[in-house]
Amino acid sequence: ESKLTLRPPSLAAPYAPVQNWQHQPEKLIFESCGYEANYLGSMLIKDLRGTESTQDACAKMRKSTEHMKKIPTIILSITYKGVKFIDASNKNVIAEHEIRNISCAAQDPEDLCTFAYITKDLQTSHHYCHVFSTVDVNLTYEIILTLGQAFEVAYQLALQAQRAKPLGAGAGEMIETKSSKPVPKPRAGMRKSAVLDQDSQSHASVSWVVDPKQDSKRTLSTKYETTIF
Question: What InterPro entries does this protein map onto (predicted)?
């Protein structure tokens, strides 16, 4: 099988502030990228406004947890299929979010160690924002960049599968991820599938927005809009 070729961040997303991805594609396909982070919690997004909603949620969750003595430590395990929350103490999978249901990943402009992304619950169509913090700004930056690379890998694999199918074959490739226990608040466990529509003008659009006022701090705000599935 031919080696998967990824577009560089600057081509995959015109406003990407970096030239190279962090990982080899095979790392996100056959293994996973794990990052330790504190999970501040999640909140319902009633009015989705892109990364503005993400940053609002970051500010609210940061404020509501600033006096908490113990904040859960989790491992974010990222692959081309999505993100798993893994309990850092016992290694149990807490929840999974499929890549197609993740959007609007961004750093908190007021605290660059805090970041979040938004997920869509397929059963209710509600959106939830999951907020995390790390001990290092560069680690937060790398996590968001790795999420962007996971989208690009998923996109290229979908194109590869599309090209390999004979004319008149089924509409798409199903990608299933194991259903898991939901995050206690809110209910976020989902059984998910991704379908590539051969008849559509499929493409992945990932826009990276860098706030020029924060450029010296290397703020990264990434809004993912994928239409490949």
Answer: ANKS1/Caskin, PH-like_dom_sf, PTB/PI_dom
